[in-house]
Structures are given as structure tokens and as C-alpha cells.
Amino acid sequence: MSTITIVGAGSWGSGLSLILADNKNLVKIYDLDKDLIKEINSSHTNERYLPGSKLPNTIVGYTDLKSALEGSEVVLTVVPTKVMRQALKSVNEALDHEVVFVNASKGIEPVSFKRVSEIVFEEIAPEKIKGFVALTGPSHAEEVIKRQLTVVSSASDDLELAKFVQVLFNNDEYFRVYTLNDLIGAELGSSLKNIIALAAGILNGLGYGDNAKAALITRGLAEMRRLAVKAGAKEETLFGLTGIGDLIVTATSLHSRNYQAGLKIGSGKNLQETLASMTMVVEGVRSCEAAYQFAKELHVEMPITFAVYDVLFNQREPKDAIKELMQRNLKSE
Fold it and tell me: N or C: which end of the chain has fewer CB within 10 A?
């Protein structure tokens, strides 16, 4: 049994807390939202993010970070990447011992193009980090909280740490975990797929069908692979759970907030209206900005990503962006 502190009590933080509690670990979950923590402790529910669900009553919620971190062996970050640096600064200040950092958020930082692992090593003092693992793959909290079958990867540059986290989260009944020794590929794949999921929603909002979506997923994967490999990832990682697996579930599921945001944009809403109507963070918007900048710097061709960027940030009409994609010079696959 291990003691784990989860930073972020949203849908995925709560979903992962269920798995860890089912696996007989001591689970502490921290959040700034006092009402949410009170609900978790008193009712063992999270109606805002996972309505109708029930959390194990062994999970304890905290609003005091120092108390939440006390005695923990693992810190699991599940906050939007937009606030990741600030959250880690707070963790670094409150933490007084060495822990394994596990991240389950998916995104890239604009301008710096930093992955979450890189941000962790920048913001946490070296003596407080035993290592870093990304827990990622095709997974929706809405299904995990119902203990539906899910398979993900535990990715790290340290294979022994990846195996430790694999055992920590693996549940023989409903949650299977593979190890992966390609942190760059895992982090980039799970971030870039959100851009393609936005595009998939836009297509559906415009009324296009399965043919278009299949082409989008296939060509989107090619773009993901090009950028990830140029950044140092292993090509085969993009054909695994953290690449095509995560891409499929995010670009085709109604649970996907990125798909839902794209659907609203394709139906006529602008970016600001769309984000204002969403109850959860749409990581694909920020990842699109970062990928656009990163691809330009690395001279990587990513026409779909660039088209999504134009729709999001330059107010281009989605149909015009699609028309330009269809009229590009003919080439071999």
C-alpha cells in the first residue's frame, strides 16, 4: 500500500482516485475548491464533474496542501496545464521530502514548448524529485468512474519507475497499464491528439460524415508523428496507446471536451463563445497554439494543425480552411 496525494479534484483526478482507492492505497486529494472538497468528504461524490458517481469513502479531501502532502510517496498532478507551473510552485513550497511525481494532464506550454515533465523539473527542487512518470492513454473519467474497461501507459525515462506506477494503478478488473520507455513520445502524442479532436468536432459541426473523419484521423496522426519524431520521440510510440489510441478515443467520443468544443465551433460559435460555454478546460486550444509555434520553429509540415490554428486564433471560416486543405498540391501518401 502506498500513500498518494492527488493535486486536482476535477473529473480525471477523481476518476484516478477511485482506481488508487480500489487498489487499497491511502488516497489524499487536494483542491482549492472548498465546497468540492467538503462534498468529497461528506457525500463521497463529485456532482459538478462526475454527476451520479460515487467515490470510495476511504478517499480524504484536503484544502491545505501541506497537510495533503504529509507522508505521501507519490504526488499525482491532474490540473490544467495552464495552471501547472503555479500548482507546482505551491507543491514545491509545501513539500518537505522526496516523492515520485506522476502527471495525468495533457498539454504543451506555448512559447516554451515545454512538456509537463520539463516543467516539473524546472519548478520542483531536485532533492524533492525521485523521478517522473506520465500516466496517459485513451481514457475518459466518465467511464473510469463506472469501472469500465480502460487501458493506458505508464511512461518514463526510468523504466523501473514506470513499472512502479504500472503496479500502483493496474487493476485486474477494469484498468490495465502498460509501461513505455519514451516520455517525449507519450507526452507529445497525448497533447497533439487534442488538436485533431478539435478538428473532428468542427467537421461534425459542419455536417461532414465518417469518410471525412477517418481521413482526418489518419492524416492527423501523420502530423503528430512528424512533429513528435522531430522533437526526439520514437516513431513507434505514435502507433501505440498514447498516440493513435488516445487520438481515436478523443476524436470520436462525445465524452471528449475537445471534440465537443470543435462541434460548437463547427456549428457557428467563435472560440470565446465556445470556451465560455464549456464546464471544463479545453486543452487542445492551448496545445494548438504551442504546436503551431513549435512546428514553425522545427520546420515541420502540419497543414491540419495550421488550419485549426487559423480557425481558432485568426477567425477563419472553417469551410474556407477545409477548402484550402482539399486544394493543396497533390502528393503521395
Answer: C
d(CA 8, CA 62): 10
Query: Residues 6 or more apart from 237 whose CB is under 8 A from it?
Result: 180, 182, 185, 186, 189, 228, 243
**pLDDT at residue 186, rounded to an integer:** 98
Instruction: Give yes or no: residues 17 and 52 share one domain.
Output: yes
- Both 194 and 154 in one domain: the answer is no
Residue range of the domain that includes 236: 184-326
- CATH number of the CATH domain containing 191: 1.10.1040.10
Residues serving a catalytic function are 193
Is residue 282 pLDDT above 90, yes or no?
no
Mean pLDDT of 260-270: 91
| Domain count across the chain | 2
Residue 65 banded pLDDT, cuts 50, 70, 90: very high
3-state secondary structure of 152: strand
The answer to whether position 332 is within a domain reads no
Q: Which of 151, 143, 154, 55 is nearest to 103 (CA)?
A: 154
Angle subtended at Cα 214 by Cα 208 and Cα 216, rounded to the nearest 5 degrees: 80
- 106 and 228 part of one domain: no
Contact 6, 29 (CB under 8 A): yes
- Do 174 and 262 lie in one domain? The reply is no
- The full DSSP string for 21-48 is HHTT-EEEEE-S-HHHHHHHHHT---TT
Looking at the fold, whether 156 and 224 belong to one and the same domain comes out as no
